[in-house]
Amino acid sequence: MNKTVKLITSFICFLSLFFVAPDSRGATVAKGVDSKEWKELVTRAQKEGTVSVYSAFVPAGARSAVQQAFKKKFDINVEYTPGTGAEIEQKFKTEYATGLRLTDLFHVGSIEFRDFIKPMKVSVPLEPLLMLPDVVEPAKWKGGRLPFLDAEKHALTLILLVDNFYAINTDLVKMDEIKSTLDVLNPKWKGKIVLVDPSVPGNSNEWFAHTILKVLGRERGEKFMRDLLKQEPTVVRDSRQAAEWVARGKHPLVIGASVSQPVDFIKNKAPIAFARLNEPNFITAAAGIFVTFKEAPHPNAAKLFINWLASREGSSIYAPAHGYPSVRTDVSTEGFVPAIIPGPNDRLSDTEEYMAEKAKLMKLAVEIFGGAR
Fold this sequence. Notes:
Blueprint: H1 3-19, H2 24-29, H3 36-48, E1 50-56, H4 60-74, E2 77-83, H5 85-97, E3 105-108, H6 110-120, H7 133-136, E4 156-157, E5 161-162, E6 166-169, E7 193-196, H8 203-216, H9 218-229, E8 234-236, H10 239-247, E9 253-255, H11 260-267, E10 272-274, E11 283-284, E12 289-292, H12 299-310, H13 312-322, H14 352-360, H15 362-369
Parallel strand pairs: 1-2, 1-3, 7-8, 7-9
Antiparallel strand pairs: 3-12, 4-12, 5-11, 6-9, 6-10
């Protein structure tokens, strides 16, 4: 073999690295928006014409923004069925028991996924449905991995936030006065704290579990909760009211308000801020989890929808409209209150293991705070 033939042979071998037997990365690239496979998916989805989404605790503005953008891009309707977690659960269970298959995706919180979707064993892994290079590349996501809630990868979250449990009136409380959970036991706060009821599901129940499981430990945490009750807090169930009382100066401090309520007042220049505690942050997916099902009525539209929503384009619309930061590394956090944006090393706190332990604490929360209203 002469020198020219050897050079040609070497060049052909070099080219073969790019054009034969694609590895996993090559297969991913082949599924981009210009690929035949993607175009065929869009065509099939458009024939279905609709994707049905049951959503719990998702703002109307977020639903509307997503509907309009998806319709404009693909000419496919997004039909949202909103409700509370309990309403969505009952509706779905009734439909499923009678043989009806009306929903393609659930857009819910971690509690709904753990307590009723997973036990029904009707969801399917989302990872095989994700196909855009923009979506499947781990570097596009905070933490360098796709943000699945569970090991089986049935639940995907597209937003993460720091769930701040303590908010103060900055005219009445100095920023350095509440730097630890134990600071609220200072006698000066007796009778002045408004506490959202931890004995019912919600952000305050999350605070209760996080404080015991992650901050103080079981023994110290339980003692803290009983000592807090001796501070004679005003216990309410209306999170919005609790935050408003602090924003208006009726109370100097609120514990357990849903993070969106103080954020609203902060954006409106009210004298309210999240306390800066020197303790582990609680990072939650809020109501930002997506799940799909066996026998979905519009499987192609559902697949297209979740790929678009998880892409930079879709997430740049969805996250700001929802009011919480995206898990993607390339979606802007401009306009968000800095206190709710997770740091580069923050990881999802409400994992399946945490949620299982948290569930065991509900009885204790009821025992301590159930009669305090």
